[in-house]
Amino acid sequence: MMLATAAPVLRRVGARPGRPRVCAAVSAHPLDDELILYDERTGEAHLLNYTGAFVWRLCDGSRTVGQVARLAAANFGIPHRQALADVRELVAMLNDANLIFVR
User: Fold this and answer.
1) Which of 64, 78, 80, 94 has the highest CB neighbour count under 10 A?
2) Burial class (CB in 10 A: 0-12, 13-18, 19+), 56
3) What pLDDT, on the 0 to 100 scale, is given for residue 6?
């Protein structure tokens, strides 16, 4: 169900060479290997696991989704194709939650 909901955004995010960037209203707080994201606009908190936290830290507007995926593939020792699909999915979910934007 989640993938079906995110599919249109995945196509949009994956179709352009955007550079994901964290929204200024979102603060990140480490919790062991995870990261708690707090959106001051909504008062909502979101939890990212270790992998999600790694990707989050790379979303500074200087890298494309593909470049983030290459770094994730190298860091986690997984095929680039798998990393690209996973990064696209995470970026789409974060974009849908208005925690990042893709410029």
Assistant:
1) 94
2) buried
3) 38
Which percentage of the chain shows pLDDT scores above 90? 82
- Taken in order of first residue, the domains within the chain and their CATH numbers are 2-102 (3.90.930.60)
> CB-hemisphere CA count at 13 Å for 16?
11
Residue 83: which residues within 8 A CB-CB, separation 6 or more?
69, 70, 72, 73, 76
Distance (Å, whole) CA 4 – CA 10: 10
d(CA 25, CA 67): 25
- HSE on the CB side for 26, CA within 13 Å? 22
